[in-house]
Specification:
With 398 residues, the protein is of the alpha+beta class. It has two domains: 221 residues, 2-Layer Sandwich (Antithrombin, Chain I, domain 2); 80 residues, no CATH class. It has nine helices and 17 strands. The protein has a six-stranded mixed β-sheet with strand order 2-1-3-15-14-13, covered by helices on one side. Strands 8-7-6-9 form a four-stranded antiparallel β-sheet, covered by helices on one side. A three-stranded antiparallel β-sheet has the order 4-5-12, with no helix packed on it. A hairpin with a 5-residue loop joins strand 7 and strand 8. Helix 2 packs antiparallel against helix 8, helix 3 runs antiparallel to helix 4 and helix 3 packs across helix 5.
Length: 398
């Protein structure tokens, strides 16, 4: 009992910061902030790739993941083991290999137990099997693997992440027509309202952030920024608020008549004395889906060399030269009156490099012909034990 490690026990503070920094950098460098995406879904895959890479390919992946080589080898297993202690969080990692690649046993030994499967080479069958894995490991929130199976695929690395939480204080559903702002004129919207009696709202000069507590040790943070801020800057502020307890100041310190971004403080009359914070929240329901091509973010994710079939070096992953030929993520998120649920499937397909090997080395060749009677034997290679042997007196006749 109680032997499972929590996420904060399994990962060091520096490793958690590295995962968060990947998310921050990824969002900041995108032309548009995705409707829903998961940096955490990418992070263990970069670690797994790095542990199988060498030279500059490995260094680029390690830098993107914010890990050293030892951490990259340990993070995928530690992360998956620790996720089991978080009831609202589900995380899975898997690898599938086809017959054209020979995986390095040392690399596969470092992956989570039962993480390695096989690709048949039949695109329809492989798609069905990997789609089933995606659905099973997101509780049906995502039903497909985001890969193009019409292209050659010799190896797939994938992560599945899902989170479900129920609000400690439910919202109430309502309808709203926005009369001003960017949503004006779009028609009647599904809105949500609630009053919180805990200190859950923080404000700063550029943004305000509300923390909505859920069960299973899950919080969902909502952040609103100044109207002139780019989405990337607002997302950066929200990540700051989520990772730094000292960010901003409590809204309870604001005076009557004071304003912050999206926030104002006023007085009203009630039948009972006030005993704590009173935060009235108006927001909207949302259901979002996103498909991302992570090759567009190769620089931020450390995939520039890994995706180049001429320069990728994964010598510690497979005997054959391979490179990342596809990197995709599909996500969904639902924010409702009763809770929040979201899922992400991240998949990286690898293919054998098609380059012609360079013949730079001289060899001396020795030939032998078994054109008369000869002996044979079979042995157990690790122990040297001879298993069977015999003599070939003459060849079989046609």
């Amino acid at each position: 009992m109680g032997t499972e490690k929590t996420l904060q026990d399994a990962l060091t503070a520096a490793e958690i910061a590295a995962a968060n920094e990947l998310t921050r950098r990824w969002f900041a460098t995108r032309a548009e902030v995705p409707a829903v995406a998961s940096g955490l879904g990418i992070w263990p895959l970069l670690a797994a790739l790095a542990s199988g890479a060498v030279d500059a390919t490995r260094e680029e992946l390690l830098a993107a993941a914010g890990l050293d080589a030892d951490q990259a080898a340990e993070v995928p297993v530690a992360l998956l083991d620790a996720a089991r202690s978080a009831p609202a969080l589900r995380l899975a990692l898997a690898v599938w290999a086809g017959s054209r690649v020979t995986l390095d046993p040392e690399w596969t030994d470092g992956l989570p137990v039962d993480a390695v499967g096989s690709l048949t080479g039949d695109a329809a069958a492989d798609k069905a099997a990997l789609d089933a894995w995606a659905s099973q490991n997101t509780g049906g929130l995502i039903e497909r693997m985001p890969l193009d199976f019409s292209r050659p695929i010799d190896l797939v690395l994938a992560s599945a992440l899902s989170v479900r939480t129920t609000w400690a204080t439910p919202f109430h559903d309502t309808n709203r027509v926005f009369k001003e702002g960017p949503w004006a004129g779009i028609g009647r919207c599904r809105a949500l309202g609630a009053t919180f009696t805990d200190d859950l709202l923080r404000v700063a000069d550029d943004a305000s952030v509300l923390t909505v507590p859920g069960d299973g040790d899950i919080d969902v943070l909502l952040g609103i920024g100044r109207a002139d801020l780019a989405p990337q800057a607002v997302m950066g502020a929200l990540i700051d608020a989520a990772t730094d307890p000292a960010w901003g100041r409590s809204s309870t310190a604001m005076a009557v008549g004071e304003r912050a971004v999206g926030v104002e403080v006023a007085e009203h009359r009630a039948t009972r004395p006030q005993t704590g914070p009173e935060i009235d929240v108006q927001t909207v329901r949302f259901k979002l889906d996103t498909d991302l091509d992570l090759s567009d973010d190769a620089a931020a994710l450390g995939l520039v060399l890994a995706s180049d079939q001429d320069r990728a070096r994964f010598d510690r992953l497979a005997a054959e030269p391979v490179y990342v030929s596809q990197a995709k993520q599909t996500c969904t998120a639902v924010f409702s009156a009763t809770g929040f649920e979201a899922a992400a499937i991240t998949a990286m397909a690898m293919a054998r490099a098609a380059g012609v090997p360079k013949l730079n080395h001289k060899h001396v060749r020795v030939s032998v012909r078994f054109d008369r009677p000869f002996a044979y034997l079979a042995r157990h290679r690790p122990s040297g034990l001879v298993l069977i042997g015999g003599w070939v007196d003459r060849p079989e006749l046609a």
